[in-house]
Amino acid sequence: MIRNLFRVSALAATLAFGATLAPAPAEARGVVVGMQLEPPGLDPTAGAAAAIREVTYANIFEGLTRFMGDGSVAPALARSWEISEDGLVYTFALAEGVLFHDGTPMTAADVKFTLDRARDPDSTNAQKQLFANIDSVEVIDDLTVQVTLSTPQGGFLGNMAWGDAVILSPGSAATNATNPVGTGPFRFAQWVQGDRVELVRNDDYWGEPARLDSVTFKFISDPNAAFAAMMAGDIDVFPGYPAPETLSLFEADPRFQLLLGSTEGETILSTNNTSGPLADVRVRRAIAHALDRQEIIDGAMFGFGTPIGTHFPPHSPDYLDLTHLSEHDPDLSRQLLAEAGFADGLRLRLTLPPPSYARRGGEIVAAQLRAVGIETETSNVEWAQWLEQVFRNTDYDLTIIAHVERDDINIYAREDYYFNYDNPAFRQLMADLDLATDPMDRREILHAAQRMIAEDYVNGFMFQIGRTGVAAAGLRGLWGNVPTPANDMTAVYWAD
Partner of 477 for a Cys bridge, out of 39, 60, 143, 492, CB 3.0 to 4.6 A? Predict the structure, then answer.
């Protein structure tokens, strides 16, 4: 018995990827994309940095499924699939004629290699939990692969759309960090470290061809330099524009358009829950009540942000507003610190990565903590150092970071995650969520999960980052919202 059958005709497949595309202009052009952070590598299956996916997602690498700009899950290398009656077996029919950029054909064997590699105990994939429920992967023929799950999982097709689940070739997997080889509409050309990554159109692409002949990702960390580059026309689009205080200048200039929308970026005062006094929930709660969210949003983001009281996006229908649990209350903070034995004050380390929301926000947070008796030793670190020191080795007390992956509340169930939050009851909620398929059941579980981490004060939940992008007026096909970390150039073209 087949419980669910998903078939995509050639026409429907074309529409899924090309409905918003205009006819190609007479002369193809390239695009220069500004990014504040340079990725530490270019293999999205072997690193946690969102900047990796911002360069590679859908452009170089593709998965079985993919996220579209509206957040929906669409077919990608899998053109159709069947799901067994018990919800355990997914049979994927792969696209025909797909070649990796090195000329080798993509087959079901590559899918098996990729998924087996990701779920291997020694895997370096940053999102191993996406693959933990896979029991086996079987090649039926070159264009058919069967994935069997240990338990039914309502979000499995969405899991396969993450940048961490893109399909790799065994022949190039080991060198993708510096020479990425995928199946996407753009091929890697060169990486001038410290400056840019260059892609060129893949003329052998199996699907709808790109309208651009090249894409250059230019790395500009300084907000003032980003403003100057946009104004000078050196950058065509800066999707995550780092100087929101100057957006009004672009809005008034007919050469530009603003890209305003929502993101999946929950910005938190991330807390090491096992670091000395931070193991005491009273201290974590005191920190939470010391934070004035609106002051942080206004000061660091110039108003472009939405207050959050838990790790969940406010634009989701399953969001639960819990900001009242950690409202700004300095007197309560001082009382809680005294109860925890720190009436005379406390000193903590605050480690800040390069993004402007972190550096600007860090100054404000430090002042707010100081007002209740918590002094901070602030360190500004580069991205690679943050990944090594904070994310991998959990050598920190507090840090400010935006978690930009969608549906990622399940990271609080990871015992080895850098928050060091260990709650079996939360892990059980995530296990229940995996099995739930009814929308109302899933909402009830998600509400319980949001409330649990809010009441445990795992982190200081601050704000959801707003999408603040700037682009040349003639550029079309850019995402409005950001449902996953990506600068998807596959549907972008010049209208003038």
Answer: 492
Lookup result for tokens 């305003």? 260
Q: Which 8-state DSSP code applies to residue 283?
A: H
Give the model's pLDDT for residue 27.
Answer: 53
DSSP one-letter string for 334-398? HHHHHHTT-TT-EEEEEEE-SSHHHHHHHHHHHHHHHTTTEEEEEEE--HHHHIIIIIIT---SE
Q: Point out the least confidently predicted range of 135-144, 146-155, 434-443.
A: 434-443
Q: E strand or H helix at 222, and its extent?
A: none
Does the pLDDT value for residue 25 go beyond 70?
A: no
Token pair belonging to 53: 């996916």
In angstroms, rounded to a whole number, what is the distance separating the alpha carbons of residues 188 and 165? 19
The token pair at 156 is 């499995």
Task: Give the up-direction half-sphere exposure of residue 345: CA atoms within 13 A in the CB hemisphere.
Answer: 9
More confidently predicted of 20 and 135: 135
CA pair distance 84, 348, nearest whole angstrom: 52
Domains of the chain, each with CATH number or no CATH: 265-466 (3.10.105.10)
Tokens at 354, concatenated: 């390069």
333-338-339 Cα angle (round to 5): 100
Cα angle value 265/122/405 (rounded, 5°): 10
Q: How far is CA 248 from CA 254, 258, 387, 470, 478, in A?
A: 12, 9, 34, 11, 20
pLDDT at position 323 over 80 = yes
